[in-house]
Amino acid sequence: MKLYTADFTLDWKPQRLVIAGYTGRDQEAVKKHIDELLELGVPAPRRVPMIYDLSPELLRTSEEISVVCNDSSGEAEVVLLDVDGSWYVGLGSDHTDRVLEAVSVQKSKQVCAKPMAREVWPLDSIADHWDEIELRSWVTINGEEQLYQSGRLDAFLAPQDLLDIVRQRDYAAPNMALFCGTLALIDGQFQYGEAFRAELLDNKTNRSISLSYEVKQLKNAEEDE
Question: N or C end: fewer C-beta atoms under 10 angstroms in the chain?
């Protein structure tokens, strides 16, 4: 996988993919989010934050993913990347099957590709203003794009705090990609569209990372006549 910074290109092969959920600093907001998901049929986590171990092959930098039915959706997330011992920050989408999520959260994540932008930033370059960085996403439904998520990284655990938890629970590994959690949905409802777009915006340095991909629906053999 080729990634790039402002100064150079990185050749990187992820060895582990870890998705962290319920990573909000505000525990009352986390509880509210859990309650919202319960209403949508998603079981409550056994502990907070939850950590899901997935196949690193799910990481993609392509602009299209394929799904069986139109019942999956993206989630904009900051991704911490260990590239040969150096930490970088990227932007990804934890695309998830929402029907399967009611049965098994880990399985619902494992069956979907995880799109990621090619551009990354050195973690050290944003560590002193992590909380100020903005994260947004949009979903396109029937050709109309609408804002789906919006907030700042102060909503989440600080990178070192989350990494400490990952290490304590024995999920850490060299050349790991760690998805750091997602923002609440603006209207509290999953939206299933034909395209997803996200942006990570650093106003202090006037730079951004953008991610966009289309969702291709495969022909469903069970519905074929």
Answer: C
